[in-house]
Amino acid sequence: MPTLSPVSRLSLKNILVPTDFSPASRAALPFAECLARTYGSTILVAHAIAPEPHLPVVMDRIPEEEEAVWKDACQRLNTFTRDPGLTAMPWKILLDRGDVANVIPEMISQHAVDLVVLGTHGHRGVSKIILGSEAEKIYRIATCPVLVVGPKVRLPEWKLRQILCPVDLVEDPGLVLHYALSLAEEHQSELIVLKAIPMVPWQYREETEERARRELESLIPEQAKDWCSPEYVIRWDNPAESILHEARTRDVDLIVMSVHKSRATAWAHLPWPVASEVVSRAPCPVLTVRI
After folding, report:
1. Domain that holds residue 261
2. Do 25 and 119 have their domain in common?
3. Closest to 29 measured CA to CA, from 40, 41, 43
4. Average pLDDT estimate for 240-260
5. Phi and psi dihedrals of 194, rounded to 5?
6. Residue 272: pLDDT band with limits 50, 70, 90
7. Percent residues over pLDDT 90 in the chain
8. Are residues 187 and 253 in the same domain?
9. Are residues 277 and 171 in the same domain?
C-alpha cells in the first residue's frame, strides 16, 4: 500500500452554493461562509431554473412568461443573499436555466469552482433509493468535492475539532485522505481513520484487524506525522452503519468520504448506496470526494 505524497494546503478560491430556496439549502449557507472565512474564498450563490415539463402539444414559449420566471428567480436570489454572514466576504449570484445535472457541472467548469456546498432534505425510502435526489445528482457528477449538509445536522457554531475519514483499502484512498489530512492540519483537528470490514468470522478478526491497521498506518505521509497522530478504527459492521456509529459516538464535526460517479459501481454488495445513507442520517456535514 503506497504512502500518500506530502499534504498541501487546500485552495478554495471559489465555493459554489446551489439553492432551490428551501430551508435545507439555506441551512447549508453558514457552512460555506465558515470555510470561506478560513480560506479567503468567494461564494457563488447559484440557482437553476428547472426546464418546463414536456407538453403533449408543441407550443412556442411565451417571452413574457419566461421573463417573469427569470425575474422571480432573481428576486428570490437577492432575498437569499441577504445573509449577515455574506457581508464580510466577496460573493456573486449565478442564474441559469436547465436541469441541475447539466447546469452545476457547467458552473463548476466556467467559474473554476473548488468546492460545492449544498443542503439536502435527505428523504429516504425505496422510491428515493431508486430515483436518487438532486443533492445526489450533484455530488456524483461534480468534478470537485461537495460538502453536503443533511437534515440531521444541528451545529450552530461549526468548528472542525474531529474529522472522520472512512476509507476502502480495495480502492485508492489517496484523494479522500489528502482532503481529510489537509483540513485536519488547517484546523488542528483530530483525525479518525475508519475501515469497515463486514462479515468477518470472530476467529479471524484479530489477524484481519492487525493487517488492516498496518495498511492504514502506512498511508499517512511522514510529514503529516509531525503534527497529526490519527486514530485508526476497525469495525465489523457494514460501511454505512460503521460510519454513522463513529460519527455519533465520537461527536465528529465532519465526515470525509469517497463516492462513485455511478451508484451502480459503489458497494454493489450492499442494498443501498453508502453515501446516500450516510448523508441522510449523519449528525454532521459530509464532504464527498468523487473517485
Report:
1. 162-290
2. yes
3. 43
4. 95
5. -115, 135
6. very low
7. 64
8. yes
9. yes
Looking up cell 425505496 gives 126
C-alpha gyration radius of the chain:
20
Asked whether 191 and 230 are in contact (CB, 8 A), the reply is yes
**Could you tell me if residue 2 is inside a domain?**
no
Quick check: is 8 in a domain?
no
The single-letter DSSP state of residue 203 is G
What pLDDT, on the 0 to 100 scale, is given for residue 242? 96
Q: What is the domain count for the chain?
A: 2
> Quick check: 231 and 180 in contact, CB under 8 A?
no
Same domain, 142 and 170: no
Strand partners, 116: 16, 146
Q: How confident is the model at residue 2 (pLDDT cuts 50, 70, 90)?
A: low
Q: What own/partner pairs with CB < 8 Å and gap ≥ 24 does 233-236 have?
A: 233/192, 233/193, 233/194, 233/195, 234/194, 234/195, 234/197, 234/208, 234/209, 235/194, 235/195, 235/196, 235/197, 236/196, 236/197, 236/198, 236/200, 236/205
Q: How confident is the model at residue 128 (pLDDT cuts 50, 70, 90)?
A: very low
